[in-house]
Amino acid sequence: MVRAGKTVFDAQVFVAIVGAGKTILEFQEYQNVFEQGDVADRVFYIQKGKVKMTVLSDQGKEAVVGILGPGQFVGEGCVIGYKLRISTATAMDHCVITAITKDGMLAALHNEPQFSEMFMAYLLTRNSRIEEDLIDQLFNSSERRLARMLLLLANFGKAGSPQPISPNISQETLSEMIGTTRSRVSHFMNKFRKLGLIDYNGQHIEVHNSLLSAVLHDNPAATRA
Fold this sequence. Notes:
Largest sheet: 4 strands, antiparallel
Structural class: alpha+beta
Distance between the termini: 56 Å
Strand order of the largest sheet: 3-10-5-8
Helix content: 25-40%
Number of helices: 7
Strand content: 15-25%
Number of strands: 12
Shape: globular
């Protein structure tokens, strides 16, 4: 970008194009971007597609800890000193991702204030989301946790219209994300559909504004038997 004869740094352009320390990668559905235990030496920026984050316990139990989409970073822990990946990142559909080396990322944070501000804002938002998820898990019923997760996956509260939820996000994935059983998720999804809070045919999920209203109220129709 050029302004008054001077080149102005554009953070969004920086993460979207090839340059020093950056590579544009493509991943297909179910392909791992990185695996838990891999060396953490790059940060990834999602240009297109969705990425599922999972962790595997010592007992072999897998849990979904997040779904990330365009405009979000993955694997940023290497910037603050993580040597190994603490989770696995898996493409949920066709993804276009910018891989930035750790050195390249640190140089950009040091030399480009706009990029540093963008990255800091992302980290603060991500940290706030983690806190909200913990509070949600501790104090809300599984039904309300599911309603909140559907709103998040549909991008409620972000610029633009709410988006249909990817059919790749199954009831099993939702159950892992909110900490309940698949049968409970199925029960709640059908209940939300009957109440007119969502359109749902077993795969396609479209969230209505009425679900947001239900979550915002302390005693919504969605939580009544």
